[in-house]
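Batch manifest, entry 17 of 40.
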Amino acid sequence: MDYKTAMKHISKGQFKPVYIAYGAESYLIQELIARLTDKLIEPEHKAFAVSRYDLTETPVDVVIEEAETLPFMVPSKLVVATNALFLTGAKESGKVEHSLERLADYLKAPTDFSIIVFTVEADKLDERKKIVKALKEADALVPCAMLSADELTGWVNQEAGKAGFSFGPGVAEQFILYTGTSLQALVKEVEKCALYVGQGGTLQAEDLEQLVTRSIEQNIFLLIEHIVQVKLDQAFTMLGELIRRKEEPIKIVMLIARQFRIMFQVKDLMQQGYSQQQIASQLGLHPYGVKVAAGQANKFELKQLADILRQLADLDYRMKSGKIDKVLGLEMFLLRLAS
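Output type: structure tokens
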């Protein structure tokens, strides 16, 4: 079942005996476990009713035994087992032997007082394996994949709504640009914004400058965005801010080169007919990052992007060999780029 369906069923008290929460978005996995805990276990019973195991250290047999053991002083219990690598194609260390037949047997006759959640941070499970097929037939698989660009914007607006405020027009997108795509980081920044604007308030673009702490990667992202939009004053202001923060110019060049490399790859793959979601998967990037890179790359021809990457490689060499002042080299690069 998909993630939204699983969360909806859990909220209604409709539980599966076994869940396999897998995917790259660990925050969603933890949210699913938290929702199950809240709906299944009374707060005062959590110490007795929630058990946790790491499957790189503990065999799955122990997890099943725990699920089959009657709960102590509580009506139901939750068993969480992390790192279920045996469900993927990843090579295991071999330190722990897992009896998958035992798990398959449990699926056929689960207890009515336990729920097991297996988690693994992997984009795909190995569907050639019998146990994965059995879990799929039991509708136990819950993918927790990275949100698409549109889903992420919707999710941010939804979290703001839960916190009692809203974003002004276009501010949610700017908020993601400033904060990044980590759901955990976004939630923390949403909480901060809620305290600032108050219940029923609206967060405007100018508020973000005061509230959101940007990483150097996000600043580079915005620096390039200013250049693409031919906002030279803002681009040089951003560069000056990075230099004042003692960021190493060579590191700034490296991060600028990384973003232009992404723009080149995204544009190249889009010209070959790939969708943004396919590109995100192929390059190992967040879909939102691909969407922004695609928008930035639209301002350049593929040949121009290749030339910019050559200029950055040359600038990196001259900086490292002492042939040019580092800050001056960066400023000259920005001027050439804007022209």
